Prior knowledge:
Elements: E1 15-20, H1 26-35, E2 40-43, H2 58-67, E3 71-74, H3 76-79, H4 87-90, H5 94-109, E4 112-116, H6 126-135, E5 139-145, E6 148-151, E7 154-157
Parallel strand pairs: 1-4, 1-5, 2-3, 2-4
Antiparallel strand pairs: 5-6, 6-7
Amino acid sequence: MVGKTSDPALSSAGRIFTVGTSNRTEQAFLALLRAYGIEQLVDVRRFPTSQRFPHFKKEALAAACRSAGLHYLWLGDLLGGYRKGGYEAYMQTPGFAQGLNRLERLAQEHPTAFCCSERLPWKCHRRFIARALESRGWQVVHILDEDRIWTPGQLQLAF
């Protein structure tokens, strides 16, 4: 068990979070980030737009984060999905390495989550980024909801 969502250890050094915007409201998404002590959101969507959920368009999400006191950065150009030849092949490129290094530097400065639109990380390219980070010694926590996190092989309650 990881601990309560208000546990300061959840944002300790060496830990990084992932989260999906999914069909959440702007308020629910920001509350979810606050519940896990996130101070910085790194958007890894290759195409940061949404017709169904306009509050998750890049500019709107950046503005919402600023209003909530969160840092926002888009790294979809380096870490976004939908790559020719597949994402695992893309992971072998200098662009991916550059993006991963940048994400690591950012996460060393502030409690950080990287996001995409898919709620479930095992259905999203975040799982590949997470695997690369884990191979470098990071503990990756996939946020599903305010009271549920996932790590490969198990579902954990945050209480």
